[in-house]
Amino acid sequence: MNIDQARFNMIEQQIRPWEVLDQEVLDLLFVMKREEFVPAAYQAFAFADVEIPLGHGANMLAPKIEARILQALQLKPSDRVLEIGAGSGYMAALLGAKAEHVYSVEIVPELLQMARDNLKRQGVDNVTLEQGDGARGWAAHAPYDAIVLSGSTPDLPPAFLQQLKSGGRLFAVVGEPPAMQAQLVTHAGEGIYQSANLFETSIAPLRNALQRARFTF
């Protein structure tokens, strides 16, 4: 497989047609070596339009979703970003390429080590990996300019909104299968949050994600 050609095809055939037109995002996806974050058993799918299993119930997001996240957040070089669900470390590396610093929280020790090894091998030095359950917020370094939930949540925990700076942006996939919405929430001022639905999708949930209240009669 010609890796550069496969990467080019991923961008031109999957990502650009999915309304990702931000040239900075497209350029970043070409230079950040996605294949270096993909487990050896799935190298043939490194540039495919699929989620890639990482073990422990976690997946790498499809490339077009990663691209839409980057485009929606409009990160600035001064931004401090929180990611919940480090996985392979690839999303953290992408975020780190556009922001000042990324705090990435992972509940599974084996995935945390995978992400740490991958990021170190790629020379990424502005990502702090922390082990813990961040499914309902991570106050340690709050407030953040941007927050990314790399797994879905049936409902968006209020703590994440409270941990956004004014002007901050949050990306989350909210809902339950088969009906989930990728949402961008912007902190527009004191107690004011604006939510926009970006696209429909279905991705694996965060472990210990906030569940919707169930009513029985």
Number of DSSP strands?
9
Estimate nothing, just give the exact number of structural domains: 1
The share of residues in extended strands comes to 25-35%
Tally of helical runs = 6
The pLDDT mean sits at 96
Observed structural traits:
29% strand, two-stranded antiparallel ribbon, 217 residues, 7-stranded mixed β-sheet, 9 strands, 6 helices, alpha/beta
Write the SSE topology.
Blueprint: H1 3-15, H2 23-31, E1 52-55, E2 58-60, H3 63-73, E3 80-84, H4 90-98, E4 101-106, H5 109-121, E5 127-131, E6 144-149, H6 158-162, E7 164-176, E8 179-189, E9 192-201
Helix pairs in contact: 1-3
Description:
This protein is of the alpha/beta class. The chain has one domain: Rossmann fold (3-Layer(aba) Sandwich), CATH 3.40.50. It is 28% helix and 29% strand. The strands form 2 sheets. A 7-stranded mixed sheet has the order 5-4-3-6-7-8-9. Strands 1-2 form a two-stranded antiparallel sheet. The termini are far apart. The mean pLDDT is 96.
Offer a concise description of the structure:
By secondary structure, this protein is an alpha/beta fold. The chain contains 6 helices and 9 strands, in the order ααββαβαβαββαβββ.
